[in-house]
Design brief:
Layout: H1 14-42, H2 46-57, E1 62-64, H3 65-72, H4 76-88, E2 92-97, E3 100-108, H5 110-130, H6 137-154
Antiparallel strand pairs: 1-3, 2-3
Length: 171
C-alpha cells in the first residue's frame, strides 16, 4: 500500500493574501469594464477586439489560426467560434494556408481594418482612464516588471512573446 507524503502548505502571509485578493478583484472587474465599453461603442466583445488587433498588427493582416490562438491564449474551438462571428460581420475572412492545405488563415478584411481603427480610440481611452491614470509613472514601470515576472512563470515557453517585449527592448 502506497503511503502519501505529507506536503506542508506554504500559506500566504497577510501581505500576500491582501495583494492576492486585490489582484483577483482587478482580474474580475477589468474584463467586464473593457467588454461593456467595446460592446456599447463598437458592437465588439473585448476578445473580438483582441483578435482584430492581433490581425491588424500581423504581416499582411493575416495569421494562421493556430498562431492566432496562441497569441490570444484561446483554444482553437473558441477562436474558431469567434472568427466565425467576425466573418459573419464581414470583419475577417478565412482562407486556406498556402503552406499547409489542412490549416487555415484568418485575414483581416478592409471592413475589419476600419472596425479596429474606429474601436481603438475608445478602447485606449477606457484603458487609460481605468488603469494608467490611476498609476504614477513609477507604478507603470512596476506593473510592467510584475507582469513580466508573472508571464515568465505562467508562460515559460514564451508563447505570448509577441504581446510583451523582453526587458532588453524597454525604453
Amino acid at each position: 500500500m502506497a503511503t502519501r507524503r505529507s506536503v506542508k502548505t506554504r500559506w500566504l502571509s497577510e501581505t500576500e493574501r491582501e495583494a492576492w485578493v486585490r489582484l483577483v478583484t482587478v482580474t474580475e472587474l477589468l474584463p467586464s469594464l473593457l467588454d461593456s465599453q467595446l460592446r456599447r461603442d463598437s458592437q465588439l466583445t473585448h476578445f473580438e477586439y483582441f483578435v482584430l488587433a492581433m490581425l491588424s498588427e500581423a504581416d499582411k493582416k493575416t495569421l494562421r489560426m493556430t498562431s492566432l490562438a496562441n497569441l490570444t491564449s484561446a483554444t482553437l474551438p473558441r477562436l474558431s467560434h469567434v472568427v466565425r462571428r467576425l466573418e459573419d460581420k464581414g470583419l475577417v475572412q478565412r482562407t486556406p494556408c498556402p503552406g499547409d492545405k489542412r490549416a487555415s488563415n484568418a485575414v483581416l478584411t478592409r471592413a475589419g481594418q476600419a472596425a479596429i481603427r474606429k474601436a481603438a480610440p475608445g478602447h485606449v481611452t477606457n484603458v487609460r482612464e481605468h488603469v494608467f491614470d490611476a498609476l504614477t509613472p513609477e507604478q507603470v514601470d512596476q506593473l510592467h516588471d510584475i507582469a513580466d515576472a508573472l508571464l515568465t512563470k505562467l508562460d515559460p515557453e514564451g508563447r505570448l512573446t509577441a504581446l510583451y517585449a523582453p526587458e532588453a527592448t524597454r525604453g
